[in-house]
């Protein structure tokens, strides 16, 4: 069975030493989180993930979810108890405002916990994860009554949440959505239609399930401008929150899929179910985007989380598996062979994972901090800047952390050779589970289009211009810093590539949008390499400062600096290749006649 | 259910128009294969794969193999009938010499058939594939009696073959092998030990199973120089080939694994089983290498095969799935949405697969032709040159075709979005099945080390020098050819990168072998991009000639030229990145202390 140890120390290093968590003390919810409290919360978070969730990961994969003839769904053995413990630990309500029964703590802590939980058991973590997404949408767009009715029970973990977008004919293109909402005359609606791929759509973990559903009110305009958001509880709820009769929504079947077997992916049939409008009519997509943006960061974390747990097990194996001898001569002549970690190519694989994991964690946590600033700061300019950054970087995080996260699970599996392919070792489950992250919450190609087509041009390019300016300002002082130069200079060169690519888009995509489409995926990855490089510069800066002041942490900090160097030497140079590809444009690929594919 | 259409036309184009198959008419077995016969054989090959094997692929995955209490193993429903049909069609014995009941046809045809069969049903194709590998080893290293006893029955498909190398403590490092061989005094040996990961180790497809087993004769030297090869039939065989009593070998269990569920991966227990030495004592590794080299080409074909079938289904889906509108405006305004193939990023994914598949097929078939030359030519210089090329390129083929083949299955799955993750669509099976190709027959990291550590320096670098010379000679005339220049010039630049990388290795790896290890994986992929580029140059050359002479093929040839251009613009430039990585050496990765991983 694979093992998992939550990277509490690394998370603390990133929050405290790299991202200066304490400087946000003026934000609501932050003041109480002193370094001691922070450390205690993360240790507790790690503990429940290691002890309660990780041991259920393989069982969940093996047993999966079962739909019974009465359309009820059982989750794998142990999931119910684990969900109770998770809810009672307050992990769902961490960032929910205190007035709704939550703890009002930073969203950033919730994100850190999401990483641990997703590493330990991604299928499980999706249940509370979806609840958190639904909570965010209700808190932002629900009216007071809806908030009072649903939020406290969901925060408590007694009720869970889902998001219902996809239909058989309507995936990426939500304009094709046909689920109908008919006014009942009492202010509520009858919802009728079929939704597919609904994660956690039906299960036995909670007393009620609160579905957030996109549907089209009769007579609404066609396309995305006629879509509204509804809350549709599995059991109807009276004004006091007591459960009433079963609503007209049920699970038609659960999908057999490649991975995340422990999470029930449901076909949900709405058959005149009573639903309640959330926010304004025909503005449902806007409301759902709140949930989707939150979910995209969550999925980015899942990508990182699978990479982290896969890495841990690969590194362990590489230190223990004796096979062959070091190229430079036996390292352990007393044993029949050396551990395979003596081999450069094994170290290459491990370092590619490690250099990703540590920077990606910093990148994601920094985005979570931006989310906290955007929602909690009382300074309009700070809010705006954070929102700009978050909007710009969310597709990069989602696309890049899940692509590279998946690749890393494949690499980690490779370290184990044949054993990596055998189920009991658990490595192949990480690959199968991680694979979904590249697809759901907007396939990564859609993230790339969102970045290039929407996020770059928005507000006259304000967000990207600010990103260029901030990054240049970060790097400038290091030009004359002997120690930092070797990290900052390659990132500066990579930033130049990103700027050139952006310029190319400005010059070539307006007149010919296909050029934007053809460039989008490479642009997203180019951006990702730069962003991870920027994080390594910040980590290196922190590591040097710590080395000078705290000799007992010098060994760990040297490891950070070596990993940063590895990133600069081997991973960052990809930006040039991406720029080269981008510059070739769309002509060749668009010229091939359809029938020649 | 996914569909499959064997790429017979493309294979014919490559063999006839690009590789000039007919010019090998002087080799034994080639003369009878006129263009008509060739076409007929490939059409028949395609037919049985499409009609008999492909329909069993999902069933095989779903049902898998079962080991019963008596240690017998059942294959999935339909496999036995399909194996009979495959054998009776003469597909196992295609390249076996006529004196042993085979058809003596070119090995190249067998390889083409292997691609089709592996696309249609990889788990199934492994059974006859392993028989063919065992046949090759027996034909090369067995004595006359062994050949007469085993080969005809195996060629007929009544008996099958396996290769037994791996043990729990001994994977890549065969020196650690402990399976014992004790002389019985009658010239035979008692074999005792445990082998793991034995594909097709036990099953119900054939009357007998002929195991080729590596073991150490009592008193033999330690390490790889004390390993011998034995043939150990499941049922002992009398001098006439009649089946005798059960031998002391049995299946202890079958592995649960990520994919290839239709193939039984067995733990094989040898408990004093009677075995017969093949070739010389203590020279077993040499004999096994024949089988392994053949198997490596076969695995390369599997990588391509999975990429091909995954591509076909992704392309089909992209033409049918209506979702969103073209960036340049609606392509099909009468329908609710355009097919997703209008999107540049979808085309990018499809073209990355297509540009790989078509060149990789040419690359693999050209290696198969080299194998035919090496084994059948009566001209020593030709044999030598072909053997050199084959030795050099085998690790490149195995490593690169399986890495990119797997990546392409992931890409193809991505084209289907959420449906790609659902089992019934079949795309995720291609991913799971393709994944093993990067691991077995020498993990790809081992291929890279074999290339850099063994194949490059062998015979004073004769093979790589010849490769450089041949490629330079191919490209030189195109420098002044207006039409061909745009294909040849980028390949020339990529070849320069490969030469620089080779030079870097010569200068840096002798004194410090870790530099070779650190460079090996990138070097292998750099080489692969060049080799595929060379193939695209040859394809482009053929396409232009055909365009000029056969106007009815012009459309197809234009598609070839566009795909070649796509390769040059988007895929070949990776060589520079690989060179950059190689040049950074091993220092950084070797400096990180083991405990910091």
Write a structural description.
Two copies of one chain form a homodimer. Chain A is an alpha+beta fold and 597 residues long. Helices cover 56% and strands 11% of the residues of chain A. Among the domains of chain A are: 133 residues, Butyryl-Coa Dehydrogenase, subunit A, domain 1; 124 residues, Beta Barrel (Butyryl-CoA Dehydrogenase, subunit A, domain 2), CATH 2.40.110; 130 residues. In chain A, the strands form three sheets. A five-stranded mixed barrel of chain A has the order 4-5-11-7-6. The radius of gyration of chain A is 24 Å and the shape is globular. The mean pLDDT of chain A is 97. The interface between A and B is large, with 96 and 97 residues.
What's the CATH topology label of the domain at 8-66 and 74-147 in chain A? Butyryl-Coa Dehydrogenase, subunit A, domain 1
The CATH architecture name of the domain at 8-66 and 74-147 in chain A reads: Orthogonal Bundle
Query: Fraction of residues of chain A in helices?
Result: 55-70%
Order of helices and strands of chain A: HHHEEHHHEEEEEEEEEHHHHHHHHHHH
Q: Give, in spatial order, the strands making up the sheet with the most strands of chain A.
A: 4-5-11-7-6
Oligomer: homodimer
How many E strands of chain A? 11
- Summarize the biggest pleated sheet of chain A: 5 strands, mixed, barrel
Domain Acyl-CoA dehydrogenase/oxidase C-terminal (chains A, B): 282-451
Protein name (chains A, B): 3-methylmercaptopropionyl-CoA dehydrogenase
Family (chains A, B): Belongs to the acyl-CoA dehydrogenase family.
InterPro entries (chains A, B): Acyl-CoA_dh-like_C_dom, Acyl-CoA_Oxase/DH_mid-dom, Acyl-CoA_Oxase/DH_mid-dom_sf, AcylCo_DH-like_C, AcylCo_DH/oxidase_C, AcylCoA_DH/ox_N, AcylCoA_DH/ox_N_sf, AcylCoA_DH/oxidase_NM_dom_sf
């Amino acid at each position: 069975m694979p093992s998992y140890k939550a990277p509490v120390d690394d998370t603390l290093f990133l929050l405290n030493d790299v991202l200066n968590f304490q400087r946000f003390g003026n934000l609501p919810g932050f003041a109480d989180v002193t370094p001691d409290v922070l450390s205690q919360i993360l240790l507790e978070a790690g503990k429940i993930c290691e002890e309660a969730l990780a041991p259920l990961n393989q069982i969940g994969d093996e047993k999966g979810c079962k739909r019974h003839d009465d359309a009820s769904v059982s989750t794998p053995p142990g999931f119910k108890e684990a969900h109770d413990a998770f809810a009672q630990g307050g992990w769902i309500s961490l960032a929910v405002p205190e007035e709704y029964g939550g703890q009002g703590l930073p969203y950033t802590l919730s994100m850190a916990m999401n990483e641990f939980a997703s590493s330990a058991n991604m299928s499980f973590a999706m249940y509370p994860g979806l609840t958190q997404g639904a909570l965010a949408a209700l808190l932002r767009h629900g009216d007071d009554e809806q908030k009072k009715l649903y939020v406290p029970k969901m925060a408590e973990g007694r009720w869970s949440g889902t998001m219902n977008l996809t239909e058989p004919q309507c995936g990426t293109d939500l304009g094709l959505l046909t689920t109908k909402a008919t006014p009942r005359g009492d202010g509520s609606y009858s919802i009728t239609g079929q939704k597919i791929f609904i994660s956690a759509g039906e299960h036995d973990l909670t007393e009620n399930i609160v579905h957030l559903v996109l549907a089209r009110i009769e007579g609404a305009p066609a396309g995305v401008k006629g879509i509204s958001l509804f809350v549709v509880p599995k059991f109807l709820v009276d004004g006091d929150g007591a459960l009433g009769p079963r609503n007209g929504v049920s699970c038609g079947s659960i999908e057999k899929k490649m991975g995340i077997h422990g999470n029930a992916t449901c076909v949900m049939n709405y058959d005149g179910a009573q639903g309640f409008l959330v926010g304004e009519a025909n503005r449902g997509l806007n409301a759902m985007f709140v949930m989707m943006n939150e979910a995209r960061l969550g999925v980015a974390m899942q990508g990182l989380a699978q990479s982290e747990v896969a890495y841990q097990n690969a590194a362990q194996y590489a230190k223990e598996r004796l096979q062959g001898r070091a190229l430079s001569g036996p390292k352990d002549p007393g044993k029949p062979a050396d551990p395979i970690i003596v081999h450069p190519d094994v170290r290459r694989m491990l370092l590619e994972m490690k250099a990703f994991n540590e920077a990606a964690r910093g990148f994601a946590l920094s985005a979570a901090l931006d989310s906290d600033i955007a929602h909690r700061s009382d300074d309009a300019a700070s809010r705006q800047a954070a929102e700009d950054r978050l909007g710009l970087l969310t597709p990069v995080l989602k696309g890049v952390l899940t692509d590279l996260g998946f690749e890393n699970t494949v690499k980690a599996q490779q370290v184990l050779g044949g054993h990596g392919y055998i189920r009991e070792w658990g490595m192949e489950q990480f690959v199968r589970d991680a694979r979904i992250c590249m697809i759901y919450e907007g396939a990564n190609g859609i993230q790339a289009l969102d970045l290039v087509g929407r996020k770059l041009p928005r507000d006259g390019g304000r967000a990207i211009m600010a990103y260029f300016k901030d990054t240049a300002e970060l790097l400038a002082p290091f030009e004359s810093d002997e120690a930092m130069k070797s990290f900052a200079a390659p990132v500066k060169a990579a930033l130049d590539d990103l700027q050139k690519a952006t310029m190319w888009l400005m010059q070539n995509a307006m007149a010919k949008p296909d050029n934007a489409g053809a460039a989008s995926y490479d642009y997203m990855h180019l951006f990702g390499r730069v962003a991870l490089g920027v994080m390594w510069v910040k980590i290196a800066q922190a590591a040097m400062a710590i080395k000078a002041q705290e000799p007992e942490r010098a060994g760990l900090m040297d490891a950070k600096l070596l990993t940063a160097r590895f990133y600069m030497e081997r991973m960052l140079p990809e930006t040039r290749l991406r720029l080269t590809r981008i510059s070739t444009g769309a002509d060749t690929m668009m010229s091939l006649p359809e029938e020649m594919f």
